[in-house]
Each structure stands twice: as C-alpha cells, then as structure tokens.
C-alpha cells in the first residue's frame, strides 16, 4: 500500500477522535513532509449524530463497521473503546486488509494476542502507541529503542486519575472521597471510576508493557491488583516523614523465579525520579541490562496528547507501508509464556501501620512475631497516644519478605489482644535490587 | 538489502565499540527474534592492535577505510569520533552503498547536512540515535513519536560531565576545579574537558535536536554558548535558597521572532522535573502543541548505554531495509532555514549577584538603573556584610528582559562607585511561557 493520499477511517469521535481529526487537518502539510504521504480522513464512524462536529469532506457512517468495510479506507483508527464493538470492528478491518491504529488498552490487553496474530497473518499492521500512557511514547521506546536490551523491570505511574488523587491527598491532606469527587468534576475520572481506582486500568497497560518488555504473550489474568481506595491520609504522612512518597504503581519484573506483575500503592524513596511525578502526569521507568534506567514522563491522558500518539502511529504506517517489525517486538507465534511468580512469593520491603494499646510489652510481642518469621525491621515510628485515647499508632518499615510470610505475620500480630485488627499494609520498592 | 545475516562493520573499539560488539554477540538470538535477521560483526576497524579484545570471527583492519570498502559489509558503525577520519569513512561507506550508524554528535552537527543528503541520494540510511544523550532515545522520539506535533521547545541536560560537576558543587558545596579533577579521575570527563565545560559538546547535541524539532538544517554556528566554569558555589547556594536549581541547559525554542539556540547555566524552579536530574544523568524536555511536555531521563553516556542506542539503530535498519523516513524527519532538501533570534534579543528572567558597599543609597541606585531600562525586580536578597568587611552581596531575580538590555543595565550598575565590577549573571527559565 503506497497510495497517496493515505485514507484514514476514524471510528469514535470523543475527545481523542476529534483531536486526531483536527491534527490530520491542521498539520496536513507537516505530516506530508514527514511521512511522504498526504493523509486524509476519508470516513468517520460515529454512532451518534454530532451537528457541531466538523469532519471535513469525510463520509460519515452511523454503523462503525461500515468504515471497516469501506474499500477506500487504508487505515482504520479505533477510538470507540470497550471490548465488544471495538473487537468486532478491528477484526473486520483486518479481514478487509486494513492497517489498524488503536488507543484501546483494554482491548489490546484482553484480545491483543488474537488480533495481532490475525494482523500478522493478513500482512497488515496493528499499532497501539496511544493505548499506554497517552502522549508518552513508551510502546515505541520498548519495542524499538530498547530492542537490544534484556529488560528486567518496567514500573510506572500509568493511571493519571489515581496519581491525581494520591497527589492531592498527599500534598493537601485531603480525603480520598473528596478528591475523587473533584477529579470527576474536572473530567479526570470517569462517571464510574472503578477501573481507575481499583487498578484494572493500570493492569491493562501493565500487561501490554510486560509483553513488550519480556517478549511474552499478553497475559490479562496475570497482574495482582490492589487499588488506592484504602490508602489513608495518615499513611501518606507517615511515608513522607520517613522520606517516601506513595504512588499507585504498575510493576512488571523479571526475576530468577519468573515474572511478577502487580499493581498496588507503593512507597518509593523520594529521591527517585518517579516519586516526583505528581498530578495527572504519567511516568514509566524501564530498566535494561545495557541502558540502565530510563524514565519517561508526560501526559498520560487528554485528547490532544493521546491524539499525538495516534498520529505518530499513522506517520509510522505511512513511512513504513510494509511494516517495521512485529507489533509486540517479536512475532506473535514466537512469544514465550513465562513462569509466573505466585503472588504470595512476591517479595518486597513493607510498610505496616498498626494501632496498639499503649502498654509496655506490646512492642516486644510485635517484634518477636516478626523475628520468628525472619522479617527484620528497618525502622519504627511510635507516636504518643492522641488526647483521651489509650491507643497509639505504630508504623514499621521492614526489610524484604515475601507477601505470604508478611501477611501471616501481620495476621498473628492483629490477633494480639493489644493490637487492633485494622492494620495498613503497603509494599515499599527502593528499585535498587 | 535483506541479506541474512546482516553484516556489520564496526569502526572504533573504545568502550562503545566493544559494548556494541558484545551486545551483538550476546543478544544474537533476541536480536534475530526482534529484527527478523541475524546480525553478525563481520569486520572490525581498529587503528591499533588490542591483543585482549575479542572480535569473534570478524575480519580486522588497521585502516578503518577498508571496512567501508568491504563488499560484504551491509552496515558501517562509526564509533571513532572526531570530524576528520570519521567524515571520510562515512562518505566512503555511503559511496559503497552501505547504511551508516554513528554515535558522533560533532560530525552530525558539523557535516550532517552533507552526509544525510549524500545518504538520501544513495538510497542508504544514516542513523545516529547514540549521538545525543547516550541511552535516551530522544532522536527517535523527536523524529517519530512526536512527528504530529509542532514542537515549540527542546531543553536538555545533555552533557553528563557538566551535570555531575554542578550537582557536586550544589549538593556538597565543592569548588569547580576540585570536582573537575574527580570527574577526570572517574573517567566522566576527558583529559581535555574543554568541550564538556564550555558548552561545545552540548551545543553539538542541541544543533541535532533543534533540526529534528523544527525541521531546520543542522546549524552548527547558531548556538550561543556559555560554559559552567564561572558558576560560583555561592550562586548555587543563593539559587537554592530562592527555590531554584542551576543546570547547564541546551535550549532550542521557536518564538514569533524566530528560533533561539543557546547553552548556558540556567536557574530552573526546583519543582520542574528536569531540575531534579542529578549527577551524570541526562534529561531532555520536549514541548509540543499536541503532546504538551514530555521529559526523558536516563544515562547520557557510558559504553553499554550508548551501545544500546547503536544497536537499536541496527535493529531499525534490519527491520526496515528500505528505510523508515528521512534521517532528520524531513528530507534534507525540504528543511527550511529559520530566522535566528539575535543573542542580544533573547529574553529571559535573570539572576544577578553583585557585591556592593554597605552604604545607604546603593540599593536605590541599582533599582533606579533597572527601572530606567524597564527591568522589573522579582526578588532581592541582601545579606549582612561578612565580618571585617564593608561589602555586602546583593542578589536579584528580575522579570523577563532581553540580554542586551540586561547587560547594558548591569554594566551601568557595575560602573557605580559602590559596586564591584565582578557581578555574576545567569538566565532563569521557568518554562511556563
């Protein structure tokens, strides 16, 4: 395919779709100079009528599948989201020999193995830079720039809503529900913010990053997920007082035991670059054997930033009509399933906050339980009781221990008569192993 | 060219050359899986004998030009540095129809227009990811990932030696000469560190970044350069006390007046991501109309990190035997020379440190001179005189003023009887315009 112009079919006309159409219209000459091809939006698929939208001279279809069937469309851009219609749409586009560009992380994470194999068999490209971290070009960096590295770890702040909430809680001492309401009012969070809060959205993105980083199939069921809804403002304060920031991280790590994938609130030393990434920004840290550590920071969402990545994919399609290597870096058939580290075996340092009776003996009981399970203590903060209370908060940082060992120890500690049963437990990652 | 294996000729066997040869040997299977081609180092050009080096089965030539003439070599990797032999070598390789991968920033900045035009005419690729910021994939990000953006600014810490020196001075209060000696002992700085210190090395890299960012020819004579040798430890302290860090930045900016290019010590608000990048790390911040601000942080030098970028270029050559767009993002003939903003017209906020007699009246004289030139003052620090001295340091931050206006005002101030003639002057960049 080296038609001039390259006809683009855009399905989905939300903020990203409109921004994509806008860039293709306004940057038409620059894109021609850079890609060697004119790019024209020839067909728009929009399930509803939007009298205020300007699609230029494009044909408009209410049935998005008509765009996939349009013989004049060279590249189908899928921006409708979800995993049902979008799934059918992309399969149909591939059947009709069209290249596909998508921003749909859920679809790639869940059905990417199937779709990429179909695309490879059909000799068309499927590109998805916008699916992870919005305007940050992390897909290309992993797939191309770090292709000569054995990547050992990818860790990222890959949900801007969650990072906004934690940042506000942390810097202003605000409560979770309060900040969430504001995030919804600002349009950062969806009406149903569940997937942002509980780690599902971050897990989708992490699945994609891990596949690229380690040459493994997209593994939607692999990540352990823990959300941010249970992070209390006092935990952010204690963390700060000990030199840490709390971020909702997605972490994929290759160890001698296998591959770990997990999304959870995490204490990070404040001197790490990624610890200073606040608000709706995203950041991805990649460790490779040759390059060392590379950190990419930028806008993880937003119409224009995401459209920047969509259009970069279109430029790549135009510059490389015959493709430029497999969608996941390695041909779908050559990806090798790893062995997974069971969640209980995933080791890290730990942050523990307990509420205990202010009695002599209780600290000794707690430290004995930890010692009996070979969990050594890095530091302890014990505060005086609040006025008119006989309870004291006890905050511990431990050295490295597997999750199963840590949770057993914690259950034993919470079974002590002097300790309340509502302890807080978070992983600490120093990223120095 | 889709030969299998792809024969690589490596010229230059310093740390980067050896690391490149090592990756191509050790990651042979992974590179085959990712690029679809075996890659073999078939010929090594090394001007001296190194009995301890292992080049595998490669042919070895003392005359590096023999590698360019070798009909079996598909891609020539130039890692000898400098702008004389390396220049001849690359021209010869292009004449012989070979793709070229180089880490040579000075050569690309000085002779890139010629070499890229030659390569385009010959239908071969010239790639240079390793020439700027070592392992950070900033060339690809500008050339490909942000291809749909109007880039308005690129600013970077692009000399690790300089950043190491400023970081040590800043965090430990050490003197310039002391840190420079250590940097040389650690191998961070060359035996002749002039180009690291005076901004020449950063200017070479900035020229390349600006060309990619703005679609302009490589313009070696354009950057204004100011080195770090005159930054005094007390300036770092005053900057810190006002909430700033001092970094040696390369800045390329497109304004309504034209393009600015400059390398100089710069005060940056400490909350900016780039202000927190310390030691030998590099960082590049890119502002685009669609993406907003993206920051890339990582190792700017070192054998393995630089070889990571060299090998990424080789994977790109293997994946895209027919190329993947012009070397500078836009075909050499289509690059358009910009109008340059004269150095005197480049405006910024300013940091000024004066030494004045501790007399009433002097502050009034200083502020009157500034006011007469429409330079408004953002803040002033005036310290008590040191014991047994009648001199006081006066530190000012101004609002935005062009360089010519600021230097005229400063000369007038230094002509005051009560003010010493050794003022310090540095630009302040808030990156919020």
Work out the number of β strands of chain A.
17
- Which architecture of the largest domain in chain A does the CATH hierarchy give at level 2? 2-Layer Sandwich
Instruction: Report the total helices of chain A.
Output: 14
Count of discrete structural domains of chain A: 3
Could you state the CATH homologous superfamily of the largest domain in chain A?
A: Dihydrodipicolinate Reductase, domain 2
Beta content of chain A comes to 15-25%
Fraction of residues in helix of chain A: 25-40%
Q: How widely separated are the two ends of chain A?
A: 47 Å
Question: What would your notes on this structure say?
Answer:
The structure is a homodimer of 433-residue chains. Chain A has 433 residues and is α/β, with parallel strands linked by helices. Chain A folds into three domains: 161 residues, 3-Layer(aba) Sandwich (Rossmann fold), CATH 3.40.50.720; 162 residues, Dihydrodipicolinate Reductase, domain 2 (2-Layer Sandwich), CATH 3.30.360; 85 residues, Alpha-Beta Plaits (2-Layer Sandwich). Chain A is 35% helix and 25% strand. The first copy, chain A, is built from 14 helices and 17 strands. In chain A, the strands form two sheets. In chain A, strands 7, 8, 9, 10, 11, 12, 13, 14, 15, 16 and 17 form an eleven-stranded mixed β-sheet that branches. A six-stranded parallel β-sheet of chain A has the order 3-2-1-4-5-6, sandwiched between helices. In chain A, helix 4 packs parallel to helix 5 and helix 13 runs antiparallel to helix 14. The first copy, chain A, is elongated and about 80 Å long. Chains A and B meet through helix 2, helix 6, strand 12 and helix 12 of A and helix 2, helix 6, strand 12 and helix 12 of B.
């Amino acid at each position: 395919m080296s038609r001039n112009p390259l006809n683009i079919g855009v399905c989905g006309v939300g903020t990203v779709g409109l921004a994509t159409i806008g860039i293709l219209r306004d940057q038409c000459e620059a894109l021609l100079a850079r890609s060697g091809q004119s790019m024209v939006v020839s067909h728009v698929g929009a399930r509803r009528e939007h009298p205020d939208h300007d699609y230029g001279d494009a044909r408009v279809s209410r049935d998005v599948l008509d765009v996939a069937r349009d013989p004049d469309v060279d590249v189908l851009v899928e921006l409708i989201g979800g995993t049902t219609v979008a799934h059918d749409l992309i399969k149909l586009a591939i059947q009709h020999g069209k290249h596909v560009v998508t921003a749909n992380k859920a679809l790639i994470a869940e059905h990417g193995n199937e779709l990429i194999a179909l695309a490879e068999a059909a000799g068309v490209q499927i590109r998805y830079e916008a699916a992870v971290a919005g305007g940050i070009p992390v897909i290309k960096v992993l797939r191309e720039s770090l292709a000569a590295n054995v990547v050992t770890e990818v860790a990222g702040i890959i949900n801007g809503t969650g990072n906004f909430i934690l940042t506000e809680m942390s810097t202003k001492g605000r409560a979770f529900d309060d900040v969430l309401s504001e995030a919804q009012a600002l349009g950062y969070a969806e009406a149903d913010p569940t997937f942002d809060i509980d780690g599902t959205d971050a897990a989708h993105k992490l699945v994609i990053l891990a596949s690229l980083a380690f040459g493994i199939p997209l593994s939607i069921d692999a990540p352990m997920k823990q959300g941010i809804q249970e992070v209390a403002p006092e935990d952010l304060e204690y963390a700060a007082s000990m030199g840490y920031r709390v971020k909702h991280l997605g972490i994929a790590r290759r160890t001698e035991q296998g591959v770990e994938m997990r999304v959870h609130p995490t204490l990070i030393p404040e001197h790490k670059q990624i610890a200073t990434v606040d608000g709706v920004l995203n950041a991805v840290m990649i460790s490779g054997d040759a390059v060392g550590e590379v950190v990419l920071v930028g806008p993880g969402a937003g119409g224009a930033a995401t459209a920047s990545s969509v259009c970069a994919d279109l430029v790549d399609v135009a510059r490389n009509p015959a493709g430029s290597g497999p969608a996941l870096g390695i041909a779908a058939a050559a990806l090798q399933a790893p062995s997974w580290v069971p969640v209980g075996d995933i080791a890290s340092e730990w942050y523990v906050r307990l509420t205990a009776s202010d009695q002599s003996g209780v600290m000794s009981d707690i430290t004995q339980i930890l010692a009996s399970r070979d969990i050594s203590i890095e530091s302890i903060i014990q505060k005086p009781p609040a006025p008119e209370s006989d309870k004291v908060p006890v905050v511990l940082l431990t050295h490295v221990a597997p999750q199963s060992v840590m949770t057993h120890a914690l259950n034993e500690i919470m079974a002590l008569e002097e300790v309340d049963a509502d302890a807080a437990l978070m992983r600490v990652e120093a990223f120095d192993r």
